[in-house]
Amino acid sequence: MNSDTPSAIVASYRRCMRGDGFIDTFYRLFLASSDEVRIKFQFTDMVHQKLVLRESLLMLILYSENQDRSQAELIKLAERHDRNHADIAPHLYELWLDTLCIAVAQHDPEFTPQVEQLWRDAMQPGIDLMISRY
């Protein structure tokens, strides 16, 4: 793969983002997945939150591909989610990732089990870092 060719995970991200519905689907599913999640987002500006998620997904992808390049930004994100701020408990990340993969399945026309595994593999290093900073 040359440097102009996007990685498979970036290509899937782009396919998901082509339409308007991916982020909405994710939050609809995520908020419905747990009362604990719903309560966490009760007073959240969802317009802003949806923009943040788009950026955070890219940050997590970049971190999985080159941890040195994006670690500082991910540490800031982890701090915003730690027990002293948003208090996102470690067990919620598994639910977040499962929900993300369901949304990808609904919005990536080239979705396969391999694409799901790409997403899981790409998100996990960042999730691990965020949990370690809880």
From TrEMBL:
It comes from the Bacteria. GO terms for molecular function: heme binding; oxygen binding; oxygen carrier activity. Pfam families: Globin. InterPro entries: Globin (IPR000971), Globin-like_sf (IPR009050), Globin/Proto (IPR012292), Mb-like_M (IPR044399). Residues 62-123 form the Globin domain. CDD domains: Mb-like (cd01040). Keywords: Heme, Iron, Metal-binding, Oxygen transport, Transport. Belongs to the globin family. This is Globin domain-containing protein. The lineage of its organism: Bacteria, Pseudomonadati, Planctomycetota, Planctomycetia, Pirellulales.
